[in-house]
Design brief:
With about 375 residues, the chain is an alpha/beta fold. The chain is about 30% helix and about 15% strand. The longest helix is centred in the middle third of the chain and has 17 residues. It starts with 17 loop residues before the first strand and ends in a 31-residue tail after the last helix. Bound molecules: 2-Phenylacrylic acid.
């Protein structure tokens, strides 16, 4: 009797392919966006970045380090941009290398808003924010690890310019060879600052009600999706992370509405950091299943997952894919190591940010299979 193999396994595994919008992933292991602060002159990704990302091309999907959409969008030293021709050409080297090695890569687009320091901005500029409230947080600037600067509130007439920067950056991303874009709506940067009422005290159409506070997210993602297609557009959210001095009076209602609005745009994926970024997963109660129920596209889960947790999340349908951060810093062949249940290299914190090849492109892969 002929038995035809089913193309979609009834119970998916982390190691099965999956389609996310227009992207065909060879497995469900995603490389999370990771700031490495190694961009060169002009905030252009270095040739080493092509090697670093290329080494990790066996990930089902790579999400690039956060990449600024314009000069005021920068908040840390040596993070790359995607708003000049030289930056686009630098990224082209990266995407070519990842594709040559069979991988998929999207760029994470960010605007840091108030999480910046005057020394990182053009002369005379200060950080911009929904409201003129300084965050109690620090950043890496040329002079060291410093308190962020006092921000100014964006005028309502300036908001279309921010949306336009994201639109143009998304166009540049496609020109640079990226397979798509992830809009950074997490971790206390500009879009998250508008979402949460701890940082947004505006009394115009972008502040106050949940509808108003989700407006910038919606407008940015709508502009990006219109430019490059919703099937190549995703968003990262972190509903309860406290990083960068963030809090909200009702995160469940806020983020359910945010995801509902993203669903209406038909975007490819939502990528959610569960709990405190890089920290405890249970810092505040939150119903992630209820959040996911608002969205019909692909769901990427993140934060502190190990192999067993990730496999269970995919098997039980809580996520279509799982993103790993620090494990990908230290293990270029993380997918193989997870598949073979092989030991993992330990990441070295001292080389996370800045520097050259050490702690960047010199983590060893397993020997080739005999
Ligand atoms: C670590 C250091 C600097 C930036 C984030 C882009 O938290 C970041 C970031 C992380 O999303």
């Amino acid at each position: 009797m002929a038995v035809s193999p089913s193309p979609v396994p009834a119970v998916p595994s982390l190691f099965d392919p999956v389609r996310i919008g227009a992207l065909e992933l060879s497995n469900r292991i995603v490389m999370a966006p990771l700031t490495r602060s190694r961009a060169g002159e002009g905030l252009v990704p270095s040739p080493l970045a092509a090697e670093y990302y290329g080494q990790r091309a066996s990930a089902g999907l790579i999400i690039s380090e956060a990449t600024q959409v314009g000069p005021l969008a920068q908040g840390y030293i040596a993070t790359p941009g995607i708003y000049t021709r030289e930056q686009v050409e630098g990224w082209r080297r990266v995407t070519d290398e990842v594709h040559r090695r069979g991988g998929r890569i999207v760029v994470q687009l960010w605007h840091v808003g108030r999480v910046s320091h005057v020394s990182l901005l053009p002369p005379g500029e200060v950080p911009v924010a929904p409201s003129a409230i300084r965050a109690s947080t620090k950043t890496f600037a040329p002079e060291g690890y410093v308190d962020v600067s006092e921000p100014r509130a964006l005028g309502i007439d300036e908001i279309p310019g921010v949306v336009e920067e994201f639109r143009q950056a998304a166009r540049n991303a496609i020109d640079a060879g990226f397979d798509g874009v992830e809009v950074h709506g997490a971790n206390g940067y500009l879009i998250d600052q508008f979402l949460r009422d701890g940082s947004n005290r505006r009394d115009d159409a972008y502040g106050g009600s949940i509808e108003n506070r989700t407006r910038l997210l919606f407008e940015v993602v709508e502009a990006v999706a219109r430019e490059i297609g919703p099937e190549r557009t995703g968003v990262r959210l972190a509903p309860v992370t406290p990083v960068n001095d963030m809090h909200d009076s009702n995160p469940q209602a806020l983020f359910e509405r945010a995801v509902e609005r993203l669903d209406a745009l038909g975007i490819a994926f939502v990528h959610v950091i569960e709990g405190a970024t890089g920290g405890p997963r249970d810092n505040l109660p939150f119903d992630y299943a209820a959040l996911r129920a608002k969205f019909r596209g692909a769901w990427i889960a993140n934060n502190g997952y190990d192999r067993d947790m990730a496999e269970a999340a995919v098997r039980e349908g809580r996520a279509d894919a799982v993103a790993f951060g620090r494990a990908f810093i230290a293990n270029p062949d993380l997918v193989r190591r997870l598949r073979e249940n092989a030991p993992l290299n330990t990441p070295d914190r001292d080389t996370f940010y800045g520097g050259g090849a050490r702690g960047y492109t010199d983590y060893p892969a397993l020997d080739p299979a005999p």
